[in-house]
Amino acid sequence: MNKLLASAAALTLFAGSAQAGGYVQIHAGLFQQTADTVAFASDNFLGEVVDVDVDSDADLGAVLGGLVGYYVLPFVAVEGEVTLRTASMEEVTVDNVETALQDDPRTIAYMANAVLRPTFPLLPDPYIGIGAGYLTNNFNTIGGEDVDGQLAYQIKAGVSFGFPLIPGTIGVEANYLATDDFDLSGDFGGDLVNTEFSYGGVSGLLTYKIGF
């Protein structure tokens, strides 16, 4: 009987900690590209001009963003997120064909996320989520035109900690972002150079979340 009462009390306490309403989160951290290959391919009437993949050796970049979330079920939230990612890389050149990656890559992700956020009494709050959205960029084609954005996907996991006298929670998050290749193809010297840039990577974030 005592065990049954204890179990019922624990379930009641757990259920009482379920979240409701909404929240705002800001996050910042570091970004490392794990996909950064530039693929060149070109043909003309004389035959193949170039067909080579080049690693752009992207260095560590920065992340800054925010999101708004709302609980649609106990422990389940949907989020709208906007996040800027930067990286640093050298200009990529192959056989005197310069890509548009002369500036450091910069992307903005507009994501919709679904997140599982259970809460436990007296413990940090873990969460895990997936998202999909649209990724814009600062790239140009070889011909100097703007490059279209791409669909993007992400998975994230983190944990939030509450502190006395501080509203909201402070936490850490790991995030993996993937997308289709960006098409940088364009005309160079009368030849169409098909150029694709692989993009994606891992972010390590500090987060601050507060409910409303």
UniProtKB/TrEMBL annotation:
Entry superkingdom: Bacteria
Q: Which residues form the Outer membrane protein beta-barrel domain?
A: 7-197
Checking InterPro entries in the record gives: Beta-barrel_OMP, OMP/PagP_B-barrel
Which key words are in the record?
Answer: Signal
Write down what this protein is called.
Porin family protein
Organism classification: Bacteria, Pseudomonadati, Pseudomonadota, Alphaproteobacteria, Parvularculales
Q: Does the keyword Lipid metabolism apply?
A: no
> Span of the secretion signal?
1-20
Q: Which residues form a coiled coil?
A: none
Is the keyword Transport in the record?
A: no
